[in-house]
Design a protein that fits this description.
single chain; alpha/beta; Alpha-D-Glucose-1,6-Bisphosphate, Chain A, domain 3; 4 domains; seven-stranded mixed sheet; five-stranded mixed sheet; 14 helices; 19 strands
Amino acid sequence: MSSNYKYFGTDGIRGVANGKVLNPDVVVRIAQATGQVIKAAGCHERPVVVIGKDTRLSGYMIESAMQAGFTSVGFTCLLLGPVPTPAVAMLTRSLRADVGVMITASHNPYTDNGIKLFTPDGVKLNGGFVEQIEHLVDNPAEIELVDGTSLGRAKRVEDVAGRYMEFIKTTVPRSFSLHGIKVVVDCANGAAYQIAPRILWELGADVVTMGIVPNGFNINDEVGATAPERLARAVQQHDADIGIALDGDADRLILVDETGVILDGDVILAALAQHMMKQGRLQGGGVVATVMTNMGMQRFIESLGLKLVRTPVGDHHVEKAMRDGGYNLGGECSGHIILRDHATTGDGTLAALQVLAFLRESGKKASDLRGLYEAWPLILKNVHLEEGQDAAETLARPDVVDAVKAVEKTLGDTGRVIVRKSGTEPLIRVMVEAEEHEDAKAGVEAIVAAIVG
């Protein structure tokens, strides 16, 4: 999905809760527009939408606005409550719904929120639908409301957590057990705060929990996949075998080994690729990742006789490339891991369980994963935009273009430069990767200096 849309970014709609876009008035129109577009594309006679959310305070407001919008165009709303994003994708398929909605801003702070939309197959809605939805949001006179006899209903779905937990457990053999393994799991005070610890406990692990007391304001607040430092300390304090960090909507995973070292999505992908290849389960002859994946990881994948396919940032890009190329493993260094044998989107809990199964079967420790490859030095700096500053215009300025070209020329084949607008926040992300740390650092500093002016 392009980030050049008015409302949609690289991962759905995201912004300040009750701000210019994510306020009740606009959210109602988004729901109505989505419903009208889905009906025009063909759906059940009595169309159904499933709606999940994470633990942000604003989720109540947006859920109610979504419910009002969808019922006004004739959709029955199945309300799931707080659940992980991958659970919404799974239940959209399981409940034979016509569209799925997840209300979340993923790893962002509680002041933000967002909307992710899924097709009946559990895949994130594509560009064609998005263009039509945005047109109707800006032209509400074209939205066709149903009459009073055709209004939709809304009902809560019972035992959503139980359905999802049973699904996750079916991805490992029935004989699989985590007895004897101590796990610290950090749920970021987010959507998986009950689900992830329960799955691990039911499979026999000794579970230590963090980030399981959401209050509407503390999601991702110095906890979870974007702040795994406390988890690293807890793993050492509890003498645990591994630490698992999820983000606010539990679609990404970061691990901590038994020594307290943080392992990112690239390491997880590399481990799963090697494991699945040895088992004869890896499809497509390779792995799909994004432009952000480390060159050291790429060289490791290639050393296995596999290919690494790169996509733009965003797990929907990864999923599409997997689908188009027949791959069943892909993901991002940020921790979105897609295992298409089981799921259509990133699933942190599922990926964690697969890594645990690999470690148990191989007899390896989590720290052994660090020896798979040597990462190239990579420096990423986020440049915050001033209010009213346009990212595209900034990136097109001659001095910025020249700075990027100069760094690329200096690095040649010994590094990579990626400068892009964030699709979820008012940022420009500057990444330079090089064989030597000083070269990466100098490259980032030169480009940032040009952007800041």
